[in-house]
Amino acid sequence: MVLCVRNGAAFVGRQLAALAAQDLDTPWELVVVDNGSRDSTAAVVAPWVERQPTWRLVAEPEPGVNRARNRGVAASVAPLLVLCDADDEVEPGWLRAMVRGLARHDLVGGALVDDPVARPRSPWRNVHQRDSLPVVHGRPYVMGASLGFRREVFDRIDGFDRGYQGGADDVDFVLRATDAGATVAFVPEARTRYRVKETAAAVMRQQYFYGRGYQRLLESHDLPGLPGDSRRGPTHRERITAVARGYRGAAMRVARVTRRDERYDYLAGIAHLSGEAVELVAGAGARTRGQRS
Hints:
Elements: E1 2-5, H1 12-20, E2 30-34, H2 41-51, E3 55-59, H3 65-75, E4 80-85, E5 89-90, H4 94-102, E6 107-114, E7 135-136, E8 139-140, E9 146-150, H5 151-156, H6 169-179, E10 184-194, H7 200-220, H8 236-253, H9 260-292
Parallel strand pairs: 1-2, 1-4, 2-3, 6-10
Antiparallel strand pairs: 4-9, 5-10, 6-9, 7-8
C-alpha cells in the first residue's frame, strides 16, 4: 500500500488509524511518502511507523502526487498495490475488499462515500466513484483516492506520468493501463469516507487543476466525443472552440444562478474552464518551443 501526503499533519493520523485497523489476514506493507511537507507531517507519521514493523516512511522532496506515487511503489515489494489519500478515511474491510478485487482484475476502484466530518461544511456536492467507476469520453477510470493495481501493470506502462500536476493524474494512468490490455472493475465493498473540499476557494482551486489535467489528457490520449460525436480525439483548435463555447454559455447563465449551491457549481465550472484555457495556451507554447529547438 502507498499513502502519499504533503502538509498533512492535521489529518493524516486519522487515515493511519483507519489503516492500522484493517483486518487483512495476510501480511501487508504500507509505504508513507512525505512529498516535501513543510509542516510536522513526518513527526506525526513517525510513531505509527515505529509501532508497525511493515510500515515505512520515505521522502519525495519534489512536489507532485505522481512523483510521490512512483517513489512509494519503488520503495514497496508487494505484487499488489493499493493507493488511498491522506485526508480521507478508509472503512473497515476496505483493504480486504481491494485485494479480493485484484485477484480477479488488473485494476480496481473502491466506493467513495460521504465523509460525515467534512460534508456538513462543504459547498461541494459532486463526488465521483460513489456507485460506479467514473467515465471520461466513454472510458472508465479510477480515482487515486481508492485505486488498486497489480505491479506488473505499473511496470508495463512505466508507472504514473510525472507531468500531471493535480488533475487527471490517476485518469491518465488507468487509460494507459487499459490501452495496454488491463482489466478494470468497481469494488463497492471497499468503502472510503471521501473528504470533499470545505471552502469555495478550495473547490475552485481543485477544479482549476482538474481543468488543466483534462486538457492535458485530451492532448495525450485519442478520446473521441468532443465536439459532437467525432470518432477521433479533438484537435487543438476544436478544444479551444469548445472552451470558448463554455465561457459563452456561462456568461449567458450567470443571471439565472441564484441559489447558494448553484453559485458554487457555477464558480467551480468557471474555474475548470480557466484551467482548461491555461493548459491550452501552455500546451501550444510548449509545442512552439519544441519546434524551435
